Structures are given as structure tokens and as C-alpha cells.
Amino acid sequence: MKITIENDTFFVSDRIKEIESNYFIVYDTQKQKYEVHYKGQEPDTYCLTLPFDELDSRTVDYVFKTQISNAKELFDEMERENDKLIKREQKRVLEQSLKNF
Asked: N or C: which end of the chain has fewer CB within 10 A?
């Protein structure tokens, strides 16, 4: 069962509508997770599942960050993080091989 969240303590539901007026939040009682949905993409309005157990300012930041208009910045950030991980792994492998030499 999914419950539409229209009012919440920190006005998160209202604040995400400032990002995009068609956004709305539901709580999935089976999964015990909050989801963001978009009225303009019928019949399946689902956009994303929030990684937080409660609605607060992180929710607004997360929704803004994952909005399609921010996709380029998000992909660039992912690329930078992936580059860091690759370099860290290469360094670890090199150090391990030098130990074994």
C-alpha cells in the first residue's frame, strides 16, 4: 500500500514542489520507504526511492541533485568519483605488487 504524503513536519512535500510542481511523495508501507513520483509521466509516476528513513532537508537536496536538468553535473561528479576509485585501486595494486617483489 502506498500513502501520499501531503503534509509533513519539515514541509518537504511542499519544498520539492518548488523544484518541480508535478513532484509528490508517497510512503510505501510494504518496503517502508519514501518515494518521489511525478504526475506528468502517467501511468507510472515513480521517479526514485529516497535513501532516507525520514523526510528532512536531505530529501530536498537529493531530489534537486537527481533532477534531470542536473544530469550533466551528476554524471560529471560520478566520473570524478570513479576516477578517484580507479587511481586508489591502481595505487593499492602497485603497492601490493612491490611488497611481493
From this structure: C
